[in-house]
Amino acid sequence: MKLGTKIQLYTTVMTLLVVIIINLFVYYSYKQFSLNAEMGQLENRGFNIMQEIQNANDNDINAEAVLQAHLLSDGYMTVIDSENNPVVRIATEAEYANISMPYSTSQYAEAMTHGPNHFVMVSLPIIWENGEVYDLQIYENVQFLHETFEILRWILLLSTAIIFIVIFLLNRIITNFITQPINKLIDRMNRTDTTSKYSMLEVDRKDTKELQELSAAFNNMMEELKVHDENQQAFIMNASHELKTPITVISSYSEMLKRFGKTREDVLDESIHAISDEARRMKYLTEQLLSFAKVNTGREEVSRQPTRIVKLIRDIAVRLETVYQREVDVCTNNEAVLAHVDVNTFDQLMKIFMDNAYKYSSDAIAVEVHDHGHSVEVAIKDRGIGIPKEDIDHIFTRFYRVDKARARKTGGSGLGLSIARELAKLNGIEISVDSQVDVGTTFRLTMESGRNDEEDN
Fold first, then answer.
1. Cα–Cα distance between 398 and 416 in angstroms, integer?
2. How many angstroms separate the CA atoms of 245 and 411, rounded?
3. Which residues pair with 120 in a beta bridge?
4. Could you give phi then psi for residue 299, rounded to 5 degrees?
5. With contact defined as beta carbons under 8 Å apart, do 101 and 111 qualify?
6. Whole-number Å distance between alpha carbons of 454 and 447
7. Total Cβ atoms within 10 A of residue 442
8. How far apart are CA 351 and CA 417, in angstroms?
């Protein structure tokens, strides 16, 4: 269902319900008020009759004559004894004489129906001529009131129908007025499919604030989609380029093996080593691609908790010293410092930075851990080739490498630091870089201290 139709339907139905409730309230309030007013007048008449009958009894005047004098223009009066036997009955119509209510010594009033006629009646205890307490009942035909009620009912029904039509038409006009800018915005959005890709909307300052925000949100979304698409295309091109070189090498040496592998041992040895190296490089690149996809899509499970960071780094250093055959020095100002990190992803993060230090330097790798109270800083230092100042802002870009020839030699994929950045985000770690060409590079990782969690506990 369209938004305009929903607005029109809901507002019309709700308004109609409100009108019906108000009309019912008006109708029944007027009806009750009118009947109560008639019964009040009837009670006053009854009190007057009682007073005159009392005076008549004192002056030996016939009480029935008093009742006859106060007979209504369209009604019925009766006096009944305790046995419900009528003592006096005076009516303007013969069929009214059949109306009766039980004897009661209490005063009451009510509305009633007798045949096709509607009456209001009052019952009053009265001392009759013989000194006994009888029941005076006065009935008034209020058919004229019910005819007024009927007219009022038709007026309210007709007014409800008119109001419904008016509300329906007004809601249609208002809905069209409200939805017209939205439909125009939808048309502008749809036109982006037939024009250039990722076209932006022109924000119309005449639109409402909500439509301007919607247009701005659409433009932001298109911009993000454009950047994402460009990154995806660049990623595919870079990955294809990285895979193309080893595949070409493997293909070339495979052809050489077909031609000379059986006759020339030197070609055989060279081809086997080259194919092995390129296969290893392809395996490493594939693993890096999978790691990047995993952390970039948020599928990496992270559980951050207070961790003895120095012990974790020393364990990593011991393992890598065996692999690299190179010394990794770990020093700290607090051996028991705690950091709020996920052990598995932080382990992977440290390996990436240590691996970089190993590839681009030939001296020992230094790792310094500093406890700053509410934060912990880990610095990975090498005395290698360094990074030119103009390249520092780009080193975390996928497949970006400062020296492609050197990266080829060291086996770099250009994805390590991109993966490191995503792992750092998962752990709430900030990365900063200090580097000087031919002097060395320092990566500083600043993370939340685990001391805060211990204090909370």
1. 8
2. 12
3. 111, 140
4. -90, -5
5. no
6. 16
7. 17
8. 11
Radius of gyration of the chain (CA): 50
Rounded to 5 degrees, φ, ψ at 2 are -70, 155
How far apart CA 111 and CA 195 sit, in angstroms, is: 77
Q: Name residues whose C-beta falls within 8 Å of residue 210's C-beta, 6 or more positions apart in sequence.
A: none
**Tens digits of per-residue pLDDT, 64-98?**
788 888 888 889 999 998 888 888 888 888 888 88
Per the rule left: phi > 0, alpha: psi between -120 and 50, beta: everything else, 6 is alpha
Q: What is the DSSP letter of 449?
A: B
- Rounded to whole angstroms, how far apart are CA atoms 268 and 257? 6
Residue 370 · residue 333 · CB < 8 Å: yes
Positive or negative: CA dihedral 381, 382, 388, 391:
negative
Which contiguous run of DSSP H or E holds residue 259? helix 209-260
The CA distance from 82 to 101, in Å, is: 12
> Nearest to residue 452, comparing CAs of 428, 430, 435?
428
User: What is the torsion angle, in degrees rounded to the nearest 10, for the CA atoms of residue 419, residue 423, residue 428 and residue 434?
Assistant: -40
pLDDT for the residue 399: 65
DSSP H/E element including 138: strand 133-141
Distances (CA, A) of 10 to 2, 162, 166, 225: 12, 18, 15, 37
Q: Two tokens at 145?
A: 């009131």
CB environment 262-298: b (16+ within 10 A), e (fewer): eeeeebbeebeebbeebeebbeebeebbebbeebbee
Distance between CA atoms of 122 and 83, rounded to whole angstroms? 19
Residue 407: pLDDT band (50, 70, 90) is: very low
Residue 318 in contact with residue 330, Cβ under 8 Å?
A: no
Q: How far apart are CA 199 and CA 133, in angstroms?
A: 98
Global pTM reads 0.48
Q: What are phi and psi of 140, to 5 degrees?
A: -125, 130
* pLDDT tens track for 156-178: 999 999 998 998 888 888 888 77
**How far is residue 333's CA from residue 370's CA, in Å, rounded to a whole number?**
6
